[in-house]
Amino acid sequence: MSNRHNDGSAGDANYGVIGKGYISYRQPDPHIASFILSALGDARTVLNVGAGAGSYEPVDREVTPVEPSASMRAQRPAHLPSATDAVAERLPFADQSFDASMATFTIHQWSDLRAGLREMRRVTRGPVVVLSCDPKELHRCWLNDYAPEMIAVEARRYPEPDAIAEALGGPVEILPVPIPLNCVDGFGEAYYGRPERLLEPGARLANSAWSFVDASVGDRFVAELGRDLANGTWDARYGALRTQPFFEGSLRLFVARP
Prior knowledge:
Blueprint: H1 15-18, H2 22-25, H3 30-40, E1 45-49, E2 62-66, H4 70-74, E3 100-104, H5 113-122, E4 128-133, H6 143-146, H7 148-157, H8 161-168, E5 172-176, E6 179-180, H9 201-205, H10 215-231, H11 233-238, E7 246-247, E8 251-256
Parallel strand pairs: 1-2, 1-3, 3-4
Antiparallel strand pairs: 4-8, 5-8, 6-7
Keywords: Methyltransferase, Plasmid, Transferase
InterPro entries: Methyltransf_11 (IPR013216), SAM-dependent_MTases_sf (IPR029063)
GO molecular function: S-adenosylmethionine-dependent methyltransferase activity
């Protein structure tokens, strides 16, 4: 069973706390969205599991969102359909109800990865599309030098790609998704060339991993990064990233076909 917080959050993150300004920093990035739309193909009916505030939901299809956090459901824009209060492990739909299903930045918060992905496969006739991160690649970002505790938390939370593919079953394509320089979806690596943004409390709050480390880690991160940006140390080490159009980080798209 999924553990729920008081606001109805499922999984390990309490979006009643961290979700309040989430959509200010976590907008769907068009480059990343293009990978998802391509994977969905010509599907007309799409299930979005762990839908949150609606990032990456296609607006040209019939989408059924599922989201257990009340605070995240409340942040869904008016032009998107209302989300059903349910968890991935127990989807309230009949077998093969949808042409395709999707899950973005959510599987690491599920209480039972295998059960959730099995449920997605059960209710889906066509492709099951999952956006996640490869935990072995998270250390490649400069963030690991300033907040290794936070990166370690992320690495423990994200499932290994092989575990995801095995749980999905059948043929699974794993696509690396390059992260664009001005990525508007503010997960950690999205700021690879814009370090100043991560000095903003809201930017860190919109990344749930920061809520799993002691506040002193964030305080130290701000102090050390602020100092190194001011004295030029960060730019001496990583300045080339400011103009690098894409970063080959940990982002992966899993496309499972029946």
